[in-house]
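Re-running Hemerythrin family protein to confirm reproducibility after the cluster update. Everything else is unchanged from the original entry.
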Amino acid sequence: MSQQARESGPPGDADRGGQGSFVVEWREGFRTGIAEVDAEHQQLFALVKGLQLANAKQRLEGLVDYVVTHFTHEEALMERSGYPGLQRHIEMHEHLAMRVSEFLVGGTAWSEERVQELRTFLNKWLVAHIVTHDLHFGRWYHATGPSTQPLPLRDAGASLFDRLFGRR
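Result of re-run:
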C-alpha cells in the first residue's frame, strides 16, 4: 500500500456512485524525531483509516480516548521542555476536540456520507496539524535539547475535555 494520500475504498464502492474513501497513510515526512510523538501519530492515522460505518460509534469512542492520551502526552512534553508555543498548541487541540464532539452529539444517524465526512476532516486536520505545528515543535525541541526536568503537574485533575467544557 502506498504511503501517499490517495482515494480508495472497499470493494463495491463503484456500486455507490464511485465514492471512495479518502485515506492518508503515515509517511516519513510527518516524523518529528520524538519517538513517542511519532508512534502516537502513526496510531492516530491507523485509527482514522479504520473508521467505517460498521464500527463508527465504537471506533470514534476509541479514537477520542486515544486523542486525549496523545494530546496529554504531547502537551506535557511541551510544558516540560518550556515550549513557547504551548498555549497556542493547547488551543488547537481543544478546537479539534470541540469539532469531534460535534460529531458525537450531532444527532444524525451514522451513514457512509457522515463517516466519510468525519474521516476526511480528521485526515486533513491531522496532516495539517503535524506538518504545520508538530514538526515545528520537533525542530524546536531538538534545537533546544530535551528537558531532564520532572514532569510538572499542570492541573492534574482536568482532562482535555474537562478544560474544553469548563469542568474543573
